[in-house]
């Protein structure tokens, strides 16, 4: 089985996440993409809502796609939030799977990765989704630092750049504005029902 590994805060999950996951699933011929929320972001601010809320929104967003699934491995107590620690756990959980890690170019270029070589050693593929504002040179610098024998595992997905971001969505919600159609309908309804991200009433 070919599994896509798509980690992140998903605070909240939005349509660009789904488009990246579906593009990777199709372009890489994946059997399933696992959405893996983290409770411990090493290089970004803490999530604004609980892991339970974020998982519920992921489940609502992916319910109509049999090629998507939620995996809570990175929410276990004591999780470091480091990809280098996550990959071995997934190898143990899915011992016969071909693992493809999916990441946005912004996350790769703008974060200080720890034990990046170790991450690549544990994966079969590492694919990058283009993101607006991330220059090709920045990605090339990261990839150039990878040992030559691992570079063949790294590829860029042939897909359009999508500007939507969770930061934008949280900003709009904090202003009491609607993000309907920026997020899947079940996610929008969940945010409204639970008054998340400072949304006091339906925008």
Mean pLDDT: 91
Number of helices: 9
**Main sheet strand line-up:** 3-2-1-4-5-6
Radius of gyration: 17 Å
What's the domain count? Answer: 1
Per CATH, the architecture is: 3-Layer(aba) Sandwich
Order of helices and strands: EHEHEHEHHEHHEHH
Overview of the structural elements:
The chain is built from nine helices and six strands, in the order βαβαβαβααβααβαα. Helix 2 packs antiparallel against helix 9. It is of the alpha/beta class. It has a six-stranded parallel β-sheet with strand order 3-2-1-4-5-6.
Give the SSE map:
Blueprint: E1 2-8, H1 15-27, E2 32-37, H2 51-62, E3 68-70, H3 83-93, E4 98-104, H4 105-110, H5 116-121, E5 125-129, H6 136-144, H7 148-151, E6 154-156, H8 166-174, H9 185-194
Parallel strand pairs: 1-2, 1-4, 2-3, 4-5, 5-6
Helix pairs in contact: 2-9
Quick overview of this protein structure:
The protein has 203 residues and is α/β, with parallel strands linked by helices.
What attributes does this structure have?
39% helix; 9 helices; alpha/beta
């Amino acid at each position: 089985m070919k599994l896509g590994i798509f980690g992140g805060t998903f605070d909240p999950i939005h349509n660009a996440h789904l488009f990246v996951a579906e593009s990777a699933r199709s372009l890489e011929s994946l059997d399933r993409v696992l959405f893996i929320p983290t409770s411990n972001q090493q290089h970004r601010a803490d999530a604004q809502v609980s892991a339970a809320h974020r998982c519920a929104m992921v489940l609502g967003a992916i319910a109509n796609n049999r090629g998507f699934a939620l995996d809570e491995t990175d929410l276990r107590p004591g999780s470091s939030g480091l990809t280098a620690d996550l990959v071995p756990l997934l190898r143990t959980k899915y011992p016969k799977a071909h693992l493809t890690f999916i990441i946005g170019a912004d996350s790769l270029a703008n974060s200080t990765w720890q034990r990046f070589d170790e991450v690549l050693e544990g994966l079969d593929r590492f694919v990058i989704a283009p993101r607006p504002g991330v220059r090709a040179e920045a990605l090339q610098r990261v990839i150039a630092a990878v040992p030559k024998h691992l570079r063949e595992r790294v590829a860029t997905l042939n897909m359009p750049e999508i500007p939507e971001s969770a930061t934008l969505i949280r900003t709009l919600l904090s202003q009491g504005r609607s993000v309907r159609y920026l997020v899947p309908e079940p996610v929008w309804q969940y945010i409204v029902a639970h008054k998340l991200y400072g949304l006091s009433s339906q925008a």
